[in-house]
């Protein structure tokens, strides 16, 4: 699961909750970073969560 948020506190909170449920997470702090991760390995992520 790829989690994208430019606010570090939001990213920490979301990831903490999901990690408690044993999800495998990758973090990105902006759209550019997220896109690079998706392009590098497009089949790795089943879900992407992002803010507006």
Describe, in plain words, how this protein is organized in 3D:
It is flat and about 25 Å long. The chain has one domain (2-50). It has 52 residues and is α/β, with parallel strands linked by helices. Strand 1 (2-4), helix 1 (8-20) and strand 2 (26-28) form a beta-alpha-beta unit. Helix content is 44%, strand content 17%.
Keywords:
52 residues; alpha/beta; three-stranded parallel beta sheet
User: What is the first-to-last residue Cα distance?
Assistant: 18 Å
Largest sheet geometry? 3 strands, parallel
Regions with pLDDT < 50 over 5+ consecutive residues?
none
Strand order of the largest sheet: 2-1-3
How many discrete domains? 1
Write the SSE topology.
Blueprint: E1 2-4, H1 8-20, E2 26-28, H2 31-40, E3 48-50
Compact summary:
With 52 residues, the protein is of the alpha/beta class.
């Amino acid at each position: 699961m790829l989690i994208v948020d430019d606010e570090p506190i939001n990213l920490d909170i979301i990831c903490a909750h999901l990690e408690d449920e044993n999800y495998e997470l990758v973090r990105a702090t902006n759209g550019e970073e997220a896109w690079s991760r998706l392009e590098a390995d497009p089949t790795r992520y089943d879900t992407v969560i992002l803010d507006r």
